[in-house]
Amino acid sequence: xxxxxxxxxxxxxxxxxxxxxxxxxxxxxxxxxxxxxxxxxxxxxxxxxxxxxxxxxxxxxxxxxxxxxxxxxxxxxxxxxxxxxxxxxxxxxxxxxxxxxxxxxxxxxxxxxxxxxxxxxxxxxxxxxxxxxxxxxxxxxxxxxxxxxxxxxxxxxxxxxxxxxxxxxxxxxxxxxxxxxxxxxxxxxxxxxxxxxxxxxxxxxxxxxxxxxxxxxxxxxxxxxxxxxxxxxxxxxxxxxxxxxxxxxxxxxxxxxxxxxxxxxxxxxxxxxxxxxxxxxxxxxxxxxxxxxxxxxxxxxxxxxxxxxxxxxxxxxxxxxxxxxxxxxxxxxxxxxxxxxxxxxxxxxxxxxxxxxxxxxxxxxxxxxxxxxxxxxxxxxxxxxxxxxxxxxxxxxxxxxxxxxxxxxxxxxxxxxxxxxxxxxxxxxxxxxxxxxxxxxxxxxxxxxxxxxxxxxxxxxxxxxxxxxxxxxxxxxxxxxxxxxxxxxxxxxxxxxxxxxxxxxxxxxxxxxxxxxxxxxxxxxxxxxxxxxxxxxxxxxxxxxxxxxxxxxxxxxxxxxxxxxxxxxxxxxxxxxxx
Length: 579
What we know:
The chain is an alpha/beta fold. The protein has helices spanning 17-33, 58-73, 124-127, 150-153, 159-164, 183-198, 295-313, 327-340, 357-370, 380-394, 401-422, 432-437, 458-469, 479-483, 503-515, 520-524, 530-542, 544-548, and strands at 3-9, 38-40, 79-86, 96-103, 106-112, 134-139, 142-148, 170-175, 201-206, 208-211, 214-217, 221-223, 229-232, 239-245, 268-273, 319-322, 345-349, 373-376, 425-428, 450-451. It folds into two domains: 3-273, 4-Layer Sandwich (Nitrilase/N-carbamoyl-D-aminoacid amidohydrolase), CATH 3.60.110; 296-548, HUPs (Rossmann fold, 3-Layer(aba) Sandwich).
């Protein structure tokens, strides 16, 4: 007897209970139309993920329960697996991260997440109590194991006990797994491995959408007992993945309980439900495997989704950004227009005495190619006024980086004035390479509400622009921008590489030091110049205070500044090889 399972990867908004309930109802109705007997939704879908300290508010938990009851009342003719917090069982305790099994209008069973991640962007031990038992639900004689996200990532998770002790031939894992580069492929390989090693079906449903810095890419997957992927959801889009699963195709002989087998997974709670509604065989369920985007395309689409959701979910009608004529602002403009529509993006050129005709021309060209509005507000007068006002205080000292930063801060002031006047969100255009080493100006080019490419290394900016150029009949980013040596144009003849190592070298050091936490000796041992490594590490360490004041931005690497990497500002440890 086959069972038809639907995986509903949807895009909730944190705290929008009414909107999230509507989305769950909409996908449930579609699953019923397509003949599904079980529909599974992502982790904490009713309240949105991650809700962070909202979980500490008793009223928030009450509203979660109210939303769950509203969904349950209308759930007829299909079994639903819905992620929502469960209030604590005793005074002073934390709530549970739970999956609620809804059947015929009632909450028939609840699974409480056993393994709470507490690394990287995750803080679940701050908010949740761990569950105590694995769970298997018999849907009319078909045993299905229920788990949540991290439960299937860890090697000693509940899957083996659900299969061997609970007889589960199918595992459904509801998840909210944040994106980073190539994460979809990595995740799918793990699901294939878990299915193969346990000889069971593995049905994994992931969240899609963006919440602050995090992007969720979807890519839900159904893996057969032999490890084959039989169905895959879309990347970066809402999707309903439907497939017929045959419980008789079950090979539990391959499964092994963890050794030593101890802890909460030993006990498997089994809940019996009445038979599911009859499978409507007249409706075909053709397994679909959406293609994985290539590595550059997936990053671009993640940036578009992250920008769209941040702007729309926070209620901004338009965004504004400074157009320097350089490659970073060109990329941010293209992403913003693709996310929101060109009519919701405003570019501002703010030429000074050091702005070349070529960069001004290219800034106008990018805006024209995209079809977005462009404003020109020169800062020469503002800059001269700054110099006149500070001349006496500076005491005749020669110009230095101070005067360069005044220009950047004048531009930041202009953009923030436009934001105040029109309610536009200011997008910053700095990349990860600049932010890492502090090659940016506080209250200048760092001023803004959202940092679109904050986690994008400079060496990835170029492939992203070329990818965007490949999508249309004519390029958005002119070839002159792609060829030009990077420059801030804050003094005559200035180029980034006067101050920084070559970007390929710089980005490699940043990757090893920031993303892999390697020390000076280990980085040098990989063939990198010791003097450049020492210089770069010093710059990274010295810039922590700047990064702490920067705008939130989209995470696309395994370790982003902000939620992922948390270092003290006041800190005498030196990682640059000093003894």
